[in-house]
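[step 3/7] fold_predict: job queued, chain A
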Amino acid sequence: MCIDYRRTQTYAEYVETFTRRCLVPAHGWVEWKGAGKLKPKFFVRRRDGAPIMFAALWDRCRTEDHGAVESFTIVTQPAGSLLNDLHDRAPVVLTGAEWERWIDPRADVANLLGPKNAGDYVVEPFAPWTGDRS
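[step 4/7] structure written:
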């Protein structure tokens, strides 16, 4: 999976390439801070431990060497207060009430894009040598 953190990407630019909306489940995501080889990592998760659902877009294309290829991208946005110290971008996280609307191709989803309440999330150190949060 690849999260696209390009600073210039807007939702309108995403939908030029990926035409179908989808959801990507996760327990959270990892952010790196700083520069160099030994950048500290942080795991971002919901405070209540519930799964996270990323807003994503997918499409299918045909290639000469691999035939039909399906790919997706996770939609990102300005990080908001939760991650301002770590990164300037963050994935769009949808709550359960928003999932059905996101995958409905006729629905206007503009108001689903935007930072969530920072109090709903926890940022924890992530041990890079084990892959464990500690």
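[step 5/7] annotate
The chain has one domain: 11-126.
The first strand starts at residue 20 and ends at 26.
exit 0
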